[in-house]
């Protein structure tokens, strides 16, 4: 399983609403993410709007393409686009700035 980290910028004036939307992610959106190969997906948000995402997938490009083919993702991305800056009208899930992994502490499992 590959690990991916990305960042985006949430509009500072929309932070509270963005957080609230993620407290109630649609069950069908969560199911589509799982079915499309997204694992251990987490979002972290700084007070200035810097959003850091972490996800594990066999192949992020394939997982993103699988999500793009779902109707629920089209609806979700349409609603989420207004929360971000610097994405030039693209859906947020197509605007990730991927960060290179420079260190990983491996677990003690065999």
TrEMBL record:
This is L-rhamnose mutarotase. SUPFAM superfamilies: Dimeric alpha+beta barrel (SSF54909). GO terms for biological process: rhamnose catabolic process. Coiled coil: none annotated. It comes from Kribbella jiaozuonensis. PANTHER family: L-RHAMNOSE MUTAROTASE (PTHR34389). InterPro entries: Dimeric_a/b-barrel, Rham/fucose_mutarotase. The lineage of its organism: Bacteria, Bacillati, Actinomycetota, Actinomycetes, Propionibacteriales. One of its GO terms (molecular function) is racemase and epimerase activity, acting on carbohydrates and derivatives.
